[in-house]
């Protein structure tokens, strides 16, 4: 569940002897006024701080881990991906394990696939594994998430992104569980060595009610900062 939702794409990389030379370890830190994940605030509209490590093997494979504060608790993700390009179309296959150290019964795993062309990208994610804390609720085995989006540079280091997604809960129709869609609009500014600032506007449907929280179908806003090393 990363902030701005970290995609598992790493871009195409060269194979063979150059792969070792291109292998790279990187780190990232960030802060946000509201941790939004697929149209849902996971902090109850409160702020969060985050950080992570990524290792790109230089041949299309990459692994990493990322952690964020919640309200209450902590989220720690572990993920891996393989990315490449064929005929001008990019692709990425990935797997992510979402863990919650304070209550591991809510841990769950997800596999995903995405394609991209020019400024456009679309993907699907499936939940094949979850702990017992999710039985009959959201983030349970069999959940599907679909999304499509586009992003483009606009001027002077600013970029604009639009994403539409739909969460198809496997337990749709159970008490408190309703599948929903959402739309996110993001404006970002690259400020070089100071990192990147972004402003998010997010609107979700009435099904965005997770883990016993309040229905979150109002328009949400988030101001975030992130920097990679």
CATH topology: Porin
* Side-by-side strand order of the widest sheet: 1-4-5-6-7-8-9-10-11-12-13-14
- Calculate the mean pLDDT score and round it: 88
Shape: globular
- Class by alpha and beta content: mainly beta
CATH structural class: Mainly Beta
Q: Which architecture name does CATH use?
A: Beta Barrel
Percentage of helical residues? under 10%
Q: How many distinct helices?
A: 1
Please state the CA-atom Rg, rounded to the nearest Å.
17 Å
**Total number of beta strands:** 14
Strand content: over 45%
Q: Tell me about the largest β-sheet.
A: 12 strands, antiparallel, barrel
- How many domain regions? 1
The CATH H-level homologous superfamily: monomeric porin ompg
List segments where confidence is low: pLDDT < 50 over at least 5 consecutive residues: 3-21
Detailed description of the structure:
The chain is mostly beta strands and 229 residues long. It has one domain (18-228): monomeric porin ompg (Porin, Beta Barrel). The protein has one helix and 14 strands, in the order αββββββββββββββ. It has one helix at residues 18-22; strands spanning 24-32, 36-37, 40-41, 48-56, 61-69, 74-86, 89-99, 108-117, 120-130, 144-155, 158-168, 180-190, 196-204, 219-228. The strands form two sheets. Strands 1-4-5-6-7-8-9-10-11-12-13-14 form a twelve-stranded antiparallel beta barrel. The protein has a two-stranded antiparallel ribbon with strand order 2-3. A hairpin with a 5-residue loop joins strand 12 and strand 13 (196-204).
